[in-house]
Amino acid sequence: MKKIMIAIVAVIALSLAFAAPAFAGGNGAVKMDLSERMQGDNARGPGSGPVVGWAIANTTGDGRLAVEVHLDNGEAKQTFDVYVKINWTWYEADIVQMTTNNNGKGNAHSVLDMDNYPVSGDSIVVQVVVKPQGSSAVIGYATDGETVPLKKYT
């Protein structure tokens, strides 16, 4: 019985030793709070209102930026334009739509080919902005700009 216990402890210890490097530093994904923007908020900043959802941004090894947006407590039964700013620049061609349900919940997913953007260095700043469809106002929902590491690809 003692040998079995020693073997089990050894297997667990080895498993943890090999698994730890895989979890160190994470996978590079960055989760950002999505908060409500109020009239007068800075167009470059997050909303000053309550947090109503989140966005996750991550780059892939093949040169793409994937962004997932989730609205938990937005305006019900609305269609929104979801913009992704890269290094504080809008890219109008990459707008996706998100429609909320009766409870104000909605999801959107966008994948951008990084070869189409002027990007250099080992990271980018990503901001997600969600506005009522067709609106040019600052109101809506927004994350702060967050640094997202670029994964190397060839």
What would your notes on this structure say?
The structure is a single chain. The chain has one helix at residues 2-23, and strands spanning 30-37, 51-59, 64-71, 79-86, 96-99, 106-113, 123-132, 140-142, 146-149. The protein contains 1 helix and 9 strands; from the N terminus they run H-E-E-E-E-E-E-E-E-E. It is globular, with a radius of gyration of 20 Å. Strand 7 (123-132) and strand 8 form a beta hairpin. The protein is mostly beta strands and 154 residues long. It has a single domain, classed as Superoxide dismutase, copper/zinc binding domain (Immunoglobulin-like, Sandwich). Strands 1, 2, 3, 4, 5, 6, 7, 8 and 9 form a 9-stranded antiparallel sheet that branches.
Q: How would you describe this structure in keywords?
A:
9-stranded antiparallel beta sheet; 40% strand; Immunoglobulin-like; 154 residues; mainly beta
Overall geometry comes to globular
Amount of helix: 10-25%
How confident overall, as mean pLDDT?
A: 78
Helix- and strand-based class?
mainly beta
Count helical runs. 1
Query: Gap between N and C termini, in Å?
Result: 53 Å
**What is the name of the CATH class?**
Mainly Beta
Q: What amount of the residues lies in strands?
A: 35-45%
Q: pLDDT under 50 segments (min length 5)?
A: 13-25
Quaternary state, please? single chain
CATH overall fold name: Immunoglobulin-like
Total separate domains: 1
| CATH architectural label | Sandwich
Please identify which CATH superfamily we are dealing with: Superoxide dismutase, copper/zinc binding domain
